[in-house]
Amino acid sequence: MGCAGSKNLPSDPATDDQPEKPQPQPDEPVGCKDVVLDTQPAPILPPAPPTPCETYRDDANATPCLDCPPGWLTRTATEGEKNGCTYYFCSELCVSQWDAPSGAPKPSAELTCTCGCLKSAHKVCAEWNPRPDTKPLTCNCGFLKEDHRPCHTYRVNMSAANFGECKCGFAKDVHDADAFASGGKAKRQDRTSKELRDGFAHKEYADCPNYTVNLQSANFGECKCGRPKGEHSPEALAKNAEAGQMSGTTRRDSSEVRSHFVHKEKVDCKKYEPDLTGGEMGVCKCGAKRGDHSDFALSADTGRHTAKQGALHVVAQKEYADCPHFELNMDPAAPFGTCRCGRSRVDHSEAALAADGAPHHAIRKNSCEVRREMEAKQEQIGTTVETHGAKVGPQAHGSVSSRYRYREARVPGTLHP
After folding, report:
1. Phi, psi values for residue 139, rounded to 5°
2. Region entry Disordered: which residue ranges (predicted)?
3. Coil vs helix vs strand at 76
4. What are the start-end ranges of the H helices in 163-305?
5. CA atoms within 13 A of residue 412's CA, in its CB half-sphere
6. What is the pLDDT of residues 285-327, one digit of tens each?
7. Which residue from 2, 84, 119, 386 has the fewest beta carbons nearer than 10 Å?
8. Among candidate residues 223, 191, 187, 218, the one with its CA nearest the CA of residue 207
9. Are 312 and 306 in contact (CB under 8 A)?
10. Alpha carbon of 112 to those of 103, 131, 213: distances in Å?
11. Is the distance from CB of 73 to CB of 57 less than 8 angstroms?
C-alpha cells in the first residue's frame, strides 16, 4: 500500500525526460572506464629522530652542523631505499625531513650528547642529586647545579655540611614561600593493596614438590633435595604434613631401643671398692674409674657400713706421734700448725688434739704478783720493761723493789713481803 497523499503529487519533468539506465545483470562484470587510478608512488619517509637519553654526557667529537639552523642536526640514513642519504632532524620537536630546514645557520656549535641529541633536547630532573665522582659536580641527569631549581617542598637535610640546607641541595632562603606552607607538603599517594603487593619482593621457592627431611644431613631441617626447609613452597610442606598423617608410627619396646644405643665397654671387676690411698678420686682398687664399672659391680659395694668400716680400718693403721698433748708452737720460724714436739697437727692422735681443746681456767693474780714477775723477768733478761708508761730497770733512779714497797706502804691493808 502506498501513501494516501502520493496520488496528488505532481510529476517531475526533469526526471521524466531522462532515459532509464540499464541495470547490470548478476553475471555481467562491472566496467571501470570512468575510474582514474593514481600511479604516483608513496613518499619515502626519513628515519625517526633519536630520542634524548636521561643522563646528558658531553660528546666532544660530535659534528657541529653549522649549516643547519639552531636546534637541528644532520644524519645519514643506514637502511631503506635512500640508504646513505643525509636527512635533517630536531629531537626537541621530534621532527625529521629530507629537505634542509629554513632559517639562518647557527652562529656556533651547540653542545651535543653522546646519544646524538643536543643538550637543549634533554630535560633537567626535578631534584638535584649530585654524583660524587664528577668534576665539576654534576647531577645524575648530567646538568650542573645552576641548571636546577629548588624543590617545592622544603625538607631539612640533617647530614648536610651547610646548616639549613634542603634535601634538594639548595639553601633554605632560595626556596619559595609555598615550599614552607602546609599546602606545599608532599601528599601521600594512596595505593591499593594489589599495588602494594606487587611492590613486595617475591620469594623464589625451590622446585622440590615434596619436602622430605634428610636425617643424614649435617644441616638441621635440610631436605633430601639439598635445600633448607624455608626455601620450600607451602604446597611442598603441606604434602609432607599429609604424608606424616597417613603413615603410622611403629611401636618398639625399651629393649629394642636400647639395642641401637652405643654400648660402653665395662671392666671385669666384680666389686667396686674405692682406693682411699690413691692419688685420684673415684678410682677403684682394680685401677679403673667408677664409671667404667658395671651396675652389678657398683651394687655389690652398697652393703651396710662398708665404706665407713673401711675408712676406720685405714685410720687405725696410721702411725701417730708420741706427744700426749698438742700445744701450738708460737715461734715465727716454725711452720704453721706445728706442735712444740716438732710434729704437725695431723700427726697427733685424737686424744692429743682433745687435750689441747680442753678449757683452760685463768689464774687470777693481784697487782703485786704481776709486778714481782715483771721484776724477775727484767733481772733475768737485763733490759728495760715498760710498766704503765714508766720505764724501770737498772738505769732508773732508785731500786724497783724500794719503789714498790713505798707504794704498798701507803696503801692500807696491803700485805708486805
Report:
1. -85, 170
2. 1-34, 390-417
3. strand
4. 193-199, 234-246, 254-259, 295-299
5. 0
6. 898 999 899 888 888 755 544 445 445 555 666 788 899 989 9
7. 2
8. 223
9. no
10. 20, 21, 63
11. no
